[in-house]
């Protein structure tokens, strides 16, 4: 039986992962350690919370004594580390928490795993520490090319710089102490349970409510979109078959300009719930607003390594995934309304009010 510590399992990707892992790894126990920040929501896992193989612990990855007691008590042999501050815009207005959680929190977790597992360099260690990271560590691409595992790091936002730092720490713990670390760097995810500060759920929710749709700059920035369940399948494959000390890039091979994504959502919603009460199509709500500071122009992932080594490839196309995602937000308006509480409205006003 595997004893898996998932950090940040009440967030977007973490909750999708916990649900899939409980289903696909029947002889595993999952301990979900989550601070339950604004982005962490136990509702995301309400359907599985009574599973005897699952336990939620509210806590902070920076809390060393809590981490030590969890490793000891739960005999943790596998870590899947999602917990992070994850929103680029928030890292621009308030970087402190990104430095604390993403860098100091990852360091704490690595160091506790090292003490608990007693691994040594050059002798194989059966445990696994999977550090979940992002393609943003590689910086911004021009018109062509894609990030591979050997692309030099060039982070440009406090968020991506903090993730890059955490990747370097994870790699250092492999090389220096023999901690069995694997790093994954993934492109933009979308799907159910994503907090509505991120582009796709923000546009869906605003468009459903007939609110303006803020598109930064000229809308020509490109992201490589991956349906969240494909990311979770990739993580399970890496856990089972990934080589320690390696990095694996994960991406959707599905590059889209932001404006294309926004227009697609408008068209799907017009079809699904009808045009606006005025009779206008939802595209009429699009507004080009002041750009994000230091906005990376284009991301694209070369995922040939994980495909070659593990046979992993995305199974959900963008066209299928975006329809499924829009349907989910239509069907789960109470979920969105609950997370878009007073603090979200304050955030929205500060972020978009003067744009
Ligand atoms: P999210 O913001 O939805 O969830 C983050 C979770 O971490 C929340 O449940 C939050 O409560 C928890 N958390 C935050 N600080 C914590 C702390 N100090 N201790 C314990 N828990 C804490 O994030 P997400 O989009 O699900 O991303 C998860 C991970 O995947 C992050 O590491 C992110 O960098 C990475 N990633 C995200 C994407 C994406 O497109 N969303 C793509 C590639 C990589
Ligand atoms: O690439 C992986 C990264 O993807 C993850 O590491 C991050 O955690 C995740 O948040 C995401 O970062 P982005 O900055 O790419 O995602 P976001 O949804 O914030 O923005 C996507 C694009 O849409 C980006 O070019 C900015 C733009 N945008 C975003 C918002 C919120 C808008 O035009 N309008 C908006 O209101």
Question: How large is the radius of gyration?
Answer: 20 Å
**CATH fold description of the domain at 3-190 and 225-253 and 298-316:** Rossmann fold
The total strand number stands at 13
From the spread of the alpha carbons, the general shape counts as globular
CATH class of the domain at 3-190 and 225-253 and 298-316: Alpha Beta
The name of the CATH superfamily of the domain at 3-190 and 225-253 and 298-316 reads NAD(P)-binding Rossmann-like Domain
Proportion of residues in β-strands: 15-25%
* Order of H and E elements: EHEEHEHHEHEEHEEEHEEHEHHHH
Q: How would you explain this protein's 3D organization?
A:
The protein has helices at 12-24, 64-74, 88-93, 96-117, 158-177, 199-209, 228-241, 258-273, 304-310, 318-331, 333-339, 342-352, and strands at residues 2-7, 28-34, 54-58, 78-81, 128-134, 181-186, 189-190, 213-216, 222-224, 226-227, 247-250, 255-257, 286-289. The mean pLDDT is 97. The chain is globular. It has a domain at 3-190 and 225-253 and 298-316: Rossmann fold, CATH 3.40.50. The protein is of the alpha/beta class and 355 residues long. Helix 8 crosses helix 10 (318-331). It has a 7-stranded parallel beta sheet, sandwiched between helices. The protein has a two-stranded parallel ribbon with strand order 7-10. It starts with a strand and ends with a helix. 45% of the residues are buried. Bound molecules: nicotinamide-adenine-dinucleotide and 2'deoxy-thymidine-5'-diphospho-alpha-D-glucose. 2'deoxy-thymidine-5'-diphospho-alpha-D-glucose binds at residues 86-88, 134-136, 187-188, 198-199, 202, 214-216, 221, 223, 258, 292, 299. Residues 7-8, 10-14, 34-37, 39-40, 60-62, 82-86, 101, 105, 132, 134, 163, 186, 188-189, 195 line the site of nicotinamide-adenine-dinucleotide.
């Amino acid at each position: 039986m595997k004893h898996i510590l998932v950090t940040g399992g009440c967030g977007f990707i973490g909750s999708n992962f916990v649900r899939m892992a409980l289903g696909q790894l029947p002889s595993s126990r999952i301990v979900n350690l989550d601070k339950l920040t604004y982005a962490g929501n136990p509702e995301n896992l309400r359907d599985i919370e009574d599973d005897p193989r699952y336990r939620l612990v509210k806590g902070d990855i920076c809390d060393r004594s809590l981490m030590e007691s969890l490793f000891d008590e739960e005999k943790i042999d596998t870590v899947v580390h999602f917990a992070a501050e994850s929103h680029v815009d928030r890292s621009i207005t308030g970087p402190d928490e990104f430095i604390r959680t993403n860098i100091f929190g990852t360091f704490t977790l690595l160091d506790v795993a090292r003490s608990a597992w007693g691994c040594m360099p050059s002798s194989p260690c059966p445990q696994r520490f999977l550090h979940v990271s992002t393609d943003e560590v590689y910086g911004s691409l021009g018109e062509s090319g894609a990030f591979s595992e050997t692309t030099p790091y060039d982070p440009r936002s406090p968020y991506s710089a903090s993730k890059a730092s955490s990747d370097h720490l994870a790699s250092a713990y492999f090389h220096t102490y023999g901690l069995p670390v694997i790093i994954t760097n993934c492109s933009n995810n979308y799907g159910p349970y994503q907090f509505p500060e991120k582009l796709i759920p923000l546009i869906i929710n605003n468009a459903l409510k007939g609110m303006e749709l803020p598109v930064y700059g000229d809308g020509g920035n490109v992201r490589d979109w991956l349906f969240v369940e494909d990311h979770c399948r990739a993580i399970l494959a890496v856990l089972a078959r990934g080589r320690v000390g390696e990095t694996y890039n994960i991406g959707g091979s599905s590059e889209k300009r932001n404006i294309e994504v926004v227009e697609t959502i408008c068209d799907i919603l017009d079809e699904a719930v009808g045009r606006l009460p005025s009779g206008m199509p939802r595209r009429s709500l699009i507004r080009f607003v002041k750009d994000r500071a230091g906005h990376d122009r284009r991301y694209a992932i070369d995922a040939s390594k994980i495909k070659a080594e593990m046979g992993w490839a995305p199974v959900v196309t963008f066209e299928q995934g975006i329809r499924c995602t829009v349907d989910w937000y239509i069907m789960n308006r109470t979920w969105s309304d609950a997370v878009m509480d007073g603090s979200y409205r304050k955030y929205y006003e500060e972020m978009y009010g003067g744009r």
